[in-house]
Specification:
Elements (H helix, E strand, L loop, with lengths): L5 H8 L12 E7 L4 E9 L5 E9 L2 H14 L4 H4 L4 H7 L8 H18 L13 E3 L4 E2 H11 L4 H8 L9 H15 L17 H22 L2 E9 L2 E8 H4 L3 H16 L5 E4 L3
Parallel strand pairs: 7-8
Antiparallel strand pairs: 1-2, 2-3, 4-5, 6-7
Helix pairs in contact: 1-2, 2-5, 4-5, 5-7, 6-7, 6-8, 9-11
């Protein structure tokens, strides 16, 4: 499902600077275990405002661990002013790229660094999730945070937004509001938003064709990525356009399983099989 670079796998399997600095000079905490990802970044800063040491503790997937690990390596030795210019794109770039579905991990790293720098300078730690009006109730993401990731990463679809901050990855009721935010940004640039209305729809499949294509997509596009994170998926049944699955391994215990189902499994089945498909988790 996700194609990880060698650097991502290296920092996931051999994370650098994990743990917590005793009596840190700065602390940055972002995310929430309820939403599936959380990061605590602690820094030791010298008298010249240079980062002497950095450590992290994270609750999340392999990409969250890798992003946190590479971030600590990137900022050691930098001044706070230099570190403040690091973006989520820089973090992903140092890992030789992240799968689109995992870009929110690099955003979380950038936000933790910003929070730590603000903490050191005595400023209130700004949690984007607490500012503005909640748009995505499933993951507690506000309009201000969505606007920020859209502008800073030049996003053009609801799926892009979900990949960068999880908004829209749950019940999907917020999709119209997210689309309006994207349209506002694109209007400022003078670019029309791709709503998907003019895309060619997939040809009608027979039940047998659909069943085989679903199984093939799960085996080729979905299962390898879940296996890389210590999880797995089992196809339980296909009821019309409803695909019933059970998550296994680490995925079964993950609090972000609903995000994985929508942003990962369902998105891939819509892409490779039919846009009409929906994925539901069942207990087996």
């Amino acid at each position: 499902m996700w194609d990880y670079s060698e650097k991502v796998m290296d920092h996931f399997l051999n994370p650098r600077n994990s743990g917590e600095i005793e009596k840190p000079d700065a602390v940055g905490e972002v995310g929430s275990m309820t939403c599936g990802d959380a990061l605590r970044l602690t820094l030791k800063i010298d008298k010249k405002e240079r980062i002497a040491d950095a450590k992290f503790q994270t609750f999340g997937c392999g990409s969250a661990i890798a992003s946190s690990s590479i971030l600590t390596e990137m900022i050691k030795g930098l001044t706070l002013e230099e570190a403040s210019r690091i973006t989520n794109k820089d973090i992903a770039g140092q890992l030789d790229g992240l799968p689109p579905e995992k870009m929110h991990c690099s955003v979380m790293g950038m936000e933790a660094l910003e929070a730590a720098i603000n903490n050191y300078r005595g400023r209130a730690i700004e949690h984007e999730e607490l500012e503005g009006t909640i748009v995505c109730k499933c993951f507690g993401v506000t309009d201000e945070k969505i606007e920020r990731v859209v502008r800073e990463n030049n996003l053009s679809t609801v799926e892009d937004v979900t990949h960068f901050c999880k908004a829209g990855g749950g019940c999907e009721e917020c999709h119209p509001q997210i689309t309006k935010i994207i349209q506002k940004f694109q209007a400022e640039k003078g670019v029309a938003v791709d709503t998907g209305a003019d895309r060619e729809r997939p040809k009608k499949l027979t039940n047998i064709q659909k069943m085989h294509l679903i199984m093939e997509t799960i085996d080729r596009e979905i299962r390898p990525g879940l296996n890389a994170d210590g999880g797995d998926i089992e196809l339980i049944d296909i009821d019309g356009d409803r695909v019933l699955v059970a998550l296994r391994g680490s995925c079964a215990e993950c609090v972000a399983s609903s995000f994985t189902l929508k942003s990962g499994v369902e998105a891939k089945l819509k892409e490779f099989v039919s846009d009409a498909l929906t994925v539901e988790e069942v207990e087996q």
